[in-house]
Design goal:
Length: 341
């Protein structure tokens, strides 16, 4: 199991905020130490400990060196999470952002939103063909791990569909060849932890958080004012661009979201998402609904992001999605869905 976090004893003040914050008791005190330890087998990669630590004693293990090595030695595709507009609100045009990524040495830069569209199509078909059974969406890696480890009786209720990053990795390998190296630029730490489940076309070779991407831009002196426009490489995403907003996945599935006609209950945030899964485990007959859960309050609030305002980021993602969807060639998009799903 790949180690996700490291705890620096020199920075730790033994305040134990991390122990209190962890929703699955993956951080504990041993008898012979005042410094907490991390149980990787229980950890679900939610990042609650990182957010709670005021002393920066718990940090994700850096992927920067691994990514730099891939860029030097291989053809490499960046598959970019659709939260970019929420995080990088300081960059005025997403096309500049794409060129900045290319300047790091990536051969291709693709949108994970297309992978969301593929997953959403599969999710829609699943509900059409399995009537009477309610499902938990499986696209949030943190909540998938929570179900598998702490509510194992619900494993059969997890949608048997790979997450969007894995679907996108398979797409770019079919496009560019199986030898292409894939780097997922994402704010989600859970994606890195769950990636061990995916092999072959679906695998991701390295992950880069938004915080790490900012460091790489600074290290290489790559600035918006010094680059030209460049769009993402095809295939482009459609409603999958709404995915960072918790009910965006339901909309990408083409599902109604009204109270009377909706087929999903959506929950976001540590407390509500876990509470909904636990209620589903004991009282699903009373809920009578599929559930859509996001551990974070939107992907743009995940621990791989810098600190920011949820509602402003929500609006940036919405405006970005509108821009992308309004300019999309829908016929070509459908052809790509048919070819790669």
């Amino acid at each position: 199991m790949e180690k996700l976090l490291e705890l620096n004893p020199q920075k730790c003040t033994a305040c134990y905020a991390c122990i209190k914050a962890c929703p699955v008791k993956a951080i504990y005190l041993s008898k012979d130490s005042l410094t907490p330890s991390i149980n990787e087998k229980r950890c679900i990669g939610c990042g609650s400990c990182i957010i709670s630590c005021s002393y920066n004693a718990i940090t994700p293990i850096s992927n920067i060196e691994k990514v730099e090595e891939l860029l030097k030695t291989s053809r490499t595709a960046a598959i970019c999470d659709h939260s970019i507009e929420g995080e990088f609100d300081d960059i005025t045009d997403y096309r500049k952002f794409v060129m900045m990524i290319r300047k790091l040495g990536f051969t291709y830069v693709n949108e994970v939103s297309f992978g969301v569209d593929i997953v959403a199509e599969k999710q829609t078909n699943l509900l059409k063909t399995h009537k009477g059974k309610n499902y938990i969406t499986s696209h949030c890696p943190v909540m998938s791990m929570y179900v598998e480890r702490f509510q194992p009786s619900l494993t059969d209720n997890l949608s048997p569909i790979i997450p969007p990053f894995a679907a996108t990795a398979a797409t770019v390998r079919r496009l560019y060849g199986e030898d292409i190296k894939v780097v997922n630029i994402t704010p989600c730490l859970g994606a890195k932890k769950i990636n061990i489940n995916y092999k072959g076309l679906n695998r991701v070779d390295a992950f880069l958080s938004f915080k790490e991407l900012r460091k790489l831009f600074a290290k290489n002196n790559i600035k918006e004012e010094n680059v030209e426009f460049s769009d993402f490489d095809e295939p482009f995403g459609n409603l999958g661009s709404l995915y960072p907003i918790p009910n965006g996945f339901v909309e990408a599935c083409g599902e109604k979201q009204s109270i009377l006609q909706g087929n999903y209950i959506t929950a976001e945030g540590k407390t509500d998402s876990i509470d909904l899964v636990n209620q589903f485990a004991t009282k699903s007959n009373l809920l009578q609904s599929n559930i859509n859960v996001y551990f974070c309050k939107g992907c743009f609030m995940a621990p791989g992001c810098t600190k920011g305002n949820k509602f402003i980021r929500n609006n940036f993602v919405k405006q970005y999605a509108l821009k992308r969807i309004n300019s999309l060639d829908k016929k070509k998009w459908q052809e790509n869905i048919d070819n790669y799903s």
